[in-house]
NAD kinase
Amino acid sequence: MLVVAHTGRPEAVRSAELVIERLSKAGISVRVLDEEAGDLHCAGVDVLPASAVAAEDAELVMVLGGDGTILRAADLARMSGTPMLGVNLGHVGFLAEAEREDLTATVERVVERHYDVEERMTIDVTVHRNGAVAAATWALNEATVEKAERERMLEVVAEIDGRPLSHWGCDGVVCATPTGSTAYAFSAGGPVVWPEVEAMLVVPISAHSLFARPLVVSPRSVVAVEVLPDTPRAVLWCDGRRTVGLPPGARVEVRRGAVPVKLARLHRTPFTDRLVTKFGLPVTGWRGRARPGSGGEGREHRHPAGER
């Protein structure tokens, strides 16, 4: 197994060392990245470069950190098809499956292979300049075209399936997956989309327009954002990690990714419960449906996440 950690956090280092110790005692070969090995101080591990090779033929990539660390690990795991299991040491941590308090139980379940694997939709992103492809990348959460200068608005035209949709003077445009609907797109005012829904989101950021609502489009659609020639330069961000400079006249095309990301799941927790827990949503007063044989409607049941 490959263990990836946010080594800038002491608690992540301690957690990674514990995970490596437990996995090694269970007879499981452990890999770490060369850029993290010096901070982890673990003997008997294989040290590999931080590339896709590190995850090849591994059963799992165990990630200790926040969503940013999981997105970094996704760069390593996606092409090899290796599932990732995140232990949240950050804040909200929507991509993580376990919390730091459950670390010992998490390792035990991993050793016993008591987990399921689900696929998450990605997006492929291409940048066109002067009619030629200038860059190609991908994202698990979102691709965002943003202004690179604070002084002036970015002028763009959005296109859906080869047809122009609207011109926006804005701070940017977010093109997100359902997984990314609780990330940047959420902060920009977009809807929360359940992970099993196959769709793409288009969310303008601070647009000066009467029609600048978040859009949910088909996963088969191709979304394009064109930077107008007389606008300041822009920048493309993918998952807040990969950037491409966009001169005036550049065109960004976003479509469903050819390769999904796999996430390991220990629990079959409904996404609704995850929302309640992560955002601390108030559910006091919820009574729910009566269970069969409970004696009628209206019997109160406790929410799985606990009333708040």
Q: What stands out?
A: Residues 143 and 238 are 4 Å apart (CA to CA). The first strand starts at residue 2 and ends at 5.
